[in-house]
Write a structure and sequence with these properties.
The complex is a heterodimer of chains A (281) and B (476).
Chain A: E1 3-12, E2 16-22, H1 24-27, E3 35-39, E4 47-55, E5 60-66, H2 70-76, E6 83-84, E7 86-91, E8 102-108, H3 111-124, E9 128-135, H4 144-148, E10 153-158, E11 165-166, H5 169-179, E12 183-189, H6 192-202, E13 209-212, E14 228-231, E15 234-237, H7 238-241, E16 244-246, H8 252-259, H9 263-276
Parallel strand pairs in A: 8-9, 8-12, 9-10, 10-11, 12-13
Antiparallel strand pairs in A: 1-2, 1-6, 2-5, 3-4, 3-7, 4-5, 13-16, 14-15
Helix pairs in contact in A: 2-9, 5-6
Chain B: H1 6-9, H2 22-30, H3 39-42, H4 50-58, H5 62-70, H6 76-82, H7 89-92, H8 104-124, E1 134-142, H9 146-157, E2 160-166, H10 174-177, H11 186-198, E3 202-205, H12 215-220, E4 225-228, E5 234-235, E6 248-250, H13 251-258, E7 278-282, H14 286-297, E8 302-307, H15 318-326, E9 330-333, E10 335-342, E11 348-361, E12 367-379, E13 382-385, E14 389-390, H16 393-398, E15 424-426, H17 429-432, H18 437-456
Parallel strand pairs in B: 1-2, 1-4, 2-3, 4-15, 6-13, 7-8, 7-13, 8-9
Antiparallel strand pairs in B: 5-14, 10-11, 11-12
Classes of the chains: A alpha/beta (281), B alpha/beta (476).
The structure holds flavin-adenine dinucleotide (2 copies), iron/sulfur cluster and FE2/S2 (inorganic) cluster (FES).
FE2/S2 (inorganic) cluster is lined by residues 217-220, 222-227, 237, 239 of chain A.
Chain lengths: 281, 476
């Protein structure tokens, strides 16, 4: 059943957008950490996107995506009033949220949007929430205002120093960890190298670190094993056992290799899409 | 039955067997002896009135034949294609002793296809006998495979409103995501589903039982009964080193890409296939055959089937094995994978196999494979693991009240299909473990009968009536 797009915000024009979807059946059940699998059109691929926010009263969910290939580019062609052919969810185990004092939520790139929902959940559970967000430069920074509305502190890092601290999110995180002796948990969502760097950074601090793994998925209900990840030496299905796992246990090297499994086909697919749309650039 | 030549078909996804013409069907039907005691019928899990339908075909009366089959079977076009007839109806046929049983499956397939093709005109005659749907009688099915479709089909013809909740974006279960197009064209499943929709069944696609909606939610929304048919879709792996390498797939993933995602038509369709030239498929069932034959059609140079027993013990349908061998399948029987090897990029490059030898028969009469300690390697750039599946866990985890058996499947009352939760029924692979389409349908039928009895009381028919023909072939 197609799901209508009620609102579209171009967060970074041509690159990242936020869609508010009319999906009361999903909004009513979605918890922080859940995701949906969607298919833009009849010949499209099933792709997973995190639920960045929900409004159960209004019956809406919000997704935020970065255009990286054919499916996300096709999604970007949709406007308010258009519909997404299939949206399935909520999927995945919700974030395990319990009162644990101070939580540091780290987000990189589009991962900031996904982290937003989790940070909000921790706040609602009575935790003190410090968020650390980062991007290459100020123009690419997402959700700074949204996070400021509830987070106890928002630490900003940019690679070029155009906003906040100059450096990576790990630099911001290190500052927070050195300053705060009683951090109960670190949550990190973003590109795989970023999550790996965060996990490596927090290990000597001995602080529980949760990462959200974005492996390739098909059904999202545990029937195919495409999303296999190795955690603590064991094979897990990210869609039903995760997507959140103990960052200190994840085999990130295998994860990166598996994410690249279909690279040539993905490139072909995107090139074909651009050719058909006559914007060979 | 006419087939595409092996050399042609191995390059396409069009159905392998092209079907009987009316003349051929009548000629084949004429071979039936119309036995006093039709033993074939006892061989069919849903007791299709085989003698009657073939009798009608002998006179060329396709409509009557179709109606006869419909009395007990709501998916004849599917069953005619995928049932293991050699061990069921055809195996029981008296002519089987002479080695030439009546081709019951093919006649069933012909009847369903032929009838569907004629439907358009019949529809105009307005022959529609189903009672009006009574919206207050609500039944939910979770999962949209053959078990649930049978429940939905039967109950809707009795005027009961059925809602089907399916997690994927297409209904049909394994018929859609597992069994390939060249064996069971998707249009056939669509046709059946379309007919049910026209008969008042509502399909909610992309709804996950246990996530989007729970069993409790359904009762809160005034459903009177819930049928669970979520299948046994959890892929089993071998648990050997290297199995997480890129290029090693579960059969479910490999086949879902090809079937549900139509990866064979990439890049017209977006789901990418994983190209493999040297392919190894592990297993000996229908699933392994489907994976192997799919790989051939996706451009593999050599496809080897690794199986730890011999050809005689393979659980697949005989016809599938023969088709696969005609198409060039290479058998590595009496071998078992012990590890996969990969390159620096984490891609699979080969598999180490151990030679096996057959030992004594087990309780079920199948010889157990024993290790020999002898190993050898074969290269591969794609491996597909088809060694079975387990119960799909999502709904079960969300419904702790459901009693399960030792193997993790749902426990039901054998006569009614009812689970440990009142008015919650279950059937198909989620009860039996991976089995067959027709057994899943038989289970659906049993549960549907009981649900009808409870909802309709004395109005319920003694036996479930046929899903009336006139509404079934609406499409085409
Ligand atoms: C649980 C989960 C949550 C996610 N949340 C978000 C989010 O909130 N915002 C966001 O922008 N992205 C998110 N992603 C990643 C997003 O799914 C991919 O960016 C998207 O599938 C890319 O598709 P494409 O066709 O545009 O690009 P492609 O060119 O097909 O692929 C680009 C890269 O995306 C990954 N990818 C490709 N196909 C899939 C697939 N079917 N499933 C998963 N990954 C794939 C691969 O690493 C690939 O190299 C999430 C992924 C997962 C698993
Ligand atoms: C590749 C392959 C080839 C086969 N070949 C043959 C053959 O030739 N002949 C034969 O007789 N049998 C064959 N079988 C077996 C046969 O397909 C199955 O026994 C039969 O489909 C079982 O039917 P079912 O309705 O119980 O479940 P399924 O067909 O498995 O359908 C279950 C459905 O439930 C959905 N689902 C799962 N979890 C949820 C949830 N939580 N919420 C909502 N929906 C959910 C699934 O997406 C699926 O659509 C084959 C199986 C496979 C995999
Ligand atoms: S349903 Fe299957 S077993 Fe029964 S008669 Fe038809 S082909 Fe034979
Ligand atoms: S996506 Fe298929 S099992 Fe996780």
């Amino acid at each position: 059943m197609p799901v209508a797009i009620l609102k579209k915000r171009r967060l970074i024009p041509g690159q990242t957008s936020e869609l508010t979807l009319d999906a009361s059946h999903i909004a009513r059940k979605a918890r922080p950490g859940n995701f949906v699998i969607l298919r833009v059109s009849e010949k499209g691929e099933r792709i997973p996107l995190t639920i960045a926010d929900t409004d159960p009263q209004a019956g809406t969910i919000t997704i935020v995506y970065l255009v990286v290939g054919k499916s996300t580019a096709e999604l970007e062609t949709l406007e308010e009033g258009d519909s997404i052919l299939d949206v399935c969810g909520p999927l995945g185990k919700p974030t395990h949220i319990e009162p644990c004092g101070t939580v540091v939520c780290v987000g990189g790139g589009t991962g900031i949007a996904a982290m937003h929902h989790i940070a909000k959940g921790h706040k609602a559970a009575g935790n003190r929430v410090i968020t650390v967000i980062g991007s290459r430069c100020e123009d690419l920074l997402l959700f700074k205002e949204e996070l400021s509305m509830f987070a106890d502190e928002v630490v900003v890092t940019t690679n070029d120093g155009s906003c906040g601290m100059q450096g990576f999110v790990t630099d911001g995180l290190r500052m927070v960890l050195d300053r705060e002796p009683s951090v109960g948990e670190v949550v990190a969502i973003g590109p795989v190298p970023m999550m790996e760097a965060v996990a490596n950074l927090t290990r000597p601090y001995n602080v529980k670190t949760t990462v959200s793994l974005n492996s390739i998925m098909i059904d999202g209900i545990g029937m195919c094993g495409a999303c296999r990840v190795v955690v603590g030496g064991e094979v897990k299905f990210a869609c039903v056992d995760g997507p959140e796992f103990d960052g200190h246990q994840v085999d990130f090297a295998r994860m990166r290799q598996r994410l690249a499994a279909f690279k040539p086909q993905e490139e072909l697919s995107w090139a074909e899409f651009r050719r058909l749309r006559g914007q060979e650039a | 039955m006419p087939e595409q030549p092996a050399r042609e078909r191995v390059k396409n996804f069009t159905e392998v067997t092209t079907g009987y013409t009316l003349d051929m069907a009548v000629a084949e039907a004429a071979r039936c002896l119309q036995c006093k005691k039709p033993v074939c019928q006892a061989g069919c899990p849903v007791e299709v009135p085989i003698k009657a339908f073939i009798g009608h075909l002998q006179k060329g009366d396709v409509t009557a034949a179709y109606k006869a089959i419909r009395e007990t079977n709501s998916l004849p076009a599917v069953c005619g294609r995928v049932c293991p007839q050699e061990v069921q109806c055809e195996g029981a046929c008296v002519l089987a002793k002479k080695g030439e049983p009546v081709c019951i499956g093919r006649l069933e397939r012909f009847t369903a296809d032929e009838y569907a093709a004629r439907s358009a005109c019949e529809q105009l005659t307005g022959d529609k006998a189903c009672p009006m749907i009574r919206e207050e009688l609500k039944v939910a099915c979770i999962g949209g495979g053959p078990a649930s479709l049978t429940v939905a089909g039967y109950l809707s013809t009795l005027g009961i409103k059925v809602h089907v909740y399916e997690a994927l974006h297409e209904p049909g279960g394994v018929l859609v995501y597992g069994i390939p197009e060249f064996r069971l064209p998707k249009a056939i499943v669509k046709r059946e589903v379309q007919a049910m929709t026209e008969n008042g069944v509502e399909f909610h696609l992309n709804w996950v039982g246990g996530r989007t909606i729970t069993v409790q939610d359904l009762f809160d929304e005034a459903f009177q009964a819930v049928f669970i048919g979520v299948g046994a879709g959890l892929p089993r792996f071998l648990k050997v080193p290297g199995e997480d390498l890129t290029g090693v797939f579960s059969a479910n993933e490999y086949l879902s890409r090809a079937n549900l995602g139509r990866a064979y038509a990439f890049p017209e369709y977006d789901t990418p296939p994983f190209p493999g030239k040297q392919v190894v498929v592990v297993g000996g069932g229908n699933v392994a055959m489907d994976a192997a034959r799919t790989a051939m059609r996706m451009g593999a140079e050599k496809v080897s089937l690794v199986y730890r027993r011999t050809k005689n013990e393979m659980p697949c349908r005989l016809e599938e094995l023969e088709h696969a061998l005609d198409e060039g399948l290479h058998l590595e029987i009496l071998t078992n994978p012990v590890s996969f090897a990969g390159d620096d990029a984490g891609r699979v490059t080969g598999v180490t196999l151990e030679r096996m030898k057959l030992g004594d028969p087990d309780e079920a009469g199948r010889c157990t494979p024993n290790c020999t300690g002898e190993y050898f390697d074969i290269p591969c750039d794609l491996a597909v693991i088809a060694v079975g599946t387990g119960p799909n866990p999502l709904l079960l985890e969300a419904t702790p009240g459901l009693k399960r058996n030792r193997r993790g499947y749902i426990e039901v009352n054998e006569d009614t299909g009812e689970t440990s939760m009142p008015n919650v029924f279950a059937g198909g692979d989620i009860v039996t473990g991976a089995a067959t389409v027709i057994l899943a349908m038989g289970a659906g039928r049993r549960a549907a009968k009981e649900i009808a009895r409870r909802l309709l009381g004395s109005d319920a028919p003694q036996d479930v009536p046929p899903l009336h023909g006139g509404v079934l072939e609406a499409q085409d």
